[in-house]
Every structure is written in structure tokens, then in C-alpha cells.
Design brief:
The complex is a heterodimer of chains A (163) and B (173).
Chain A (H helix, E strand, L loop, with lengths): L3 E4 L5 H14 L10 H8 L6 E7 L12 E7 L5 E5 L10 H13 L8 E6 L3 H9 L3 E2 H5 L1 E7 L1 H6 L3
Helix pairs in contact in A: 1-2
Chain B lengths: L3 E4 L5 H14 L10 H8 L7 E6 L12 E12 L3 E11 L8 H15 L4 E7 L3 H9 L3 E2 H5 L1 E6 L1 H9 L5
Helix pairs in contact in B: 1-2
The chains are: A alpha+beta (163), B alpha+beta (173).
Keywords (chain A): Acyltransferase, Transferase
InterPro entries (chain A): Acyl_CoA_acyltransferase (IPR016181), Diverse_Substrate_AcTransf (IPR051016), GNAT_dom (IPR000182)
Organism (chain A): Sphaeramia orbicularis
Chain lengths: 163, 173
Amino acid sequence: MDFSIRAANVEDCKDIARMITELAEYEKVTDQVKITQRDLEQDGFSKNPFFHGIIAEVPEQHKSKEGDGKNTDSNRNKTTVASDKKWLYLCFLGKGIGKALMSKVAQVIGSGRGCHQLNFTVLDWNKSSVDFYLHQGCTDVTTDMGYHYMSCKGEAMEHLAQP
Amino acid sequence: MDFKIRPARKEDCKDVSRMIMELAVFENMPDQVKISHEELERDGFCQNPFFECLIAEVPEEHKSKDGFTVVGYALYFYTYSTWKGRSVYLEDLYVMPEFRGNGIGKGLLSKVAEVGKEKQCVRLNLSVLDWNTSAREFYAAKGAQNLTESEGWHSIRFDKLNMENLAKEAPKD
């Protein structure tokens, strides 16, 4: 299947927001998604963006049944780039699009920005994702080295930020 | 003990580099440290810095046995959650052993959270080694949740070589 990979622009935020929600549905955590299209526009396309995005696009004749040919990978951060959200419609799986998105991220941050590591997180039950990433040559540093991922959020973070 | 938390300056990179190595030795991985103060100066103090850093400093009369007044640091950068939005990732938090127990670690952590809040960040994330009980307890006491244990999140990494291999297969523009 013919597809192209390109940098996301601000007009893509509507599609990105849609696909973030779809991915959250797959991960069974729809109620956790708090950001909107507007947040993505402000945070990804301002003077000092919080993230960068790469889009996979198919030609009009291959568009999804919902009528939109876009699917999205979001990568973020400038140092070690975290890229844990990749979502492809079922009909677009197996076409090399996921691999192409990952490769583009590696290229953009590697030769493009001089980064030496690509880090992200994946849910342990998400076997197809885990297998995909391991097949691309990455290491599970939680299993192999014992790193645990911790997060301070909501009230805990508010409390911590008190002087 | 009297101490001050302040943003790092370029001149602090030698001290930060020293303490990065001390932390790596503690974590039994000193051979993994590939950068020096020069990379820190380049990457932390350019136009689009890759990280920000806070320093803990003590007055001259309390300097360490080796003569250092810069006794702790917190190095962090901004990330993004597609669920929650702006986040901050704490890469390193370290206080020299002879200065622990004085609230310096808490001071650094709180300041990172405060800086993150000013930038409207809603999460503060970090990684900790499973055997590092004192660190795990320190963060848990401050309200951090262990998402590996509670939700099954695993940290995945591509190292430099695998990243380069992957990049070779990127589609041409």
C-alpha cells in the first residue's frame, strides 16, 4: 500500500486528537484523556513546542472507511524522545507503516538532533506492541535492568510544589 | 543546615558532571556515563536547551570534605502526555551522602515540581531502580505512584546502535 510519512502541522491536530482517543479506547482508559485538539495546537506548534509529531498518510483512494486517510505517531521531548503512542487502523496494519514511523523518529532525533537514545513506555499486557518494539531491536529496561516508572500527579504534584 | 536551591549556570557543569559520575557509581554503572561537562554545557545552555538543572549549594563554612559547595542537583526536561498534556521528567536527583538528611533532596524535588507547575505541567515522571529501596520510599512518601507495579508500564529503550539501524530504514523525504 502506498503511504507517505511527513512532519505533522497544526492542521493535523484534529486527527491527532481523534486518534489519541481511539488509542485510549484500545488501552481501556478513555476517561484518562484530558487534553483537547486546542491543547495539542498550543503545545506542539508554539515557539518552544513540548512535542513534535510525524504523520503517516495514505492517498485518497486508500482512505479509511471513516473517510480520513491519516494516522499518527506522536513523539515528544528534545532529549531522549518518548514515543509510546502509535495507532494504526486495523486495515492499515501489516503494511510497514508502523516501522516507517519508528524509523523516521529515529532518523529525525538521531542524525537530525544528535540524540543517542530513544526511550518510551509500553504496557506489559500489550503483547503485539511489546513484540513489535523488541523486533525493532530495543531493550525492555524494566525487565532487564529493573527500572520502575514512577509518576507524581494531581494533588501529589500540587502538594510537592508548595514552597 | 543552611542551603540554597538555584538554577544551574554554565560554570556549574563541572560540578554536575562530578555528581553524575558519583550517582552512576552508586547505581553500579559508571561505564555507562559517556558525556562530560562539555556536553552538559553545550546541551543545557544553548538556544533550545535539552534540559534544565537546579543546584543545591551550601555556604563556604559547610563545604564538603573535598572542598565542594555544590552538593546536589536535579536535572529534568519537559515531555508530553497525549492523555494529560505537559509533563516534566526528572532524569536525576542526587545529594552527596555527607549532606543527606537535611531536606536538600526534598528541596530539589519540590523546586522541580514548582517549576513544572509554572509551566502548567500536570505530571512529574521519573524512573528508579527496583533495588534502590531508599529512593523508591523517598518518592513514594512524596506521593509518587509506581506505575510499573500498579499498571504494568515497562520502560523500553533503543540505544545508539539500534537507533542508527532503525534510522537507516526511514523512508526518503
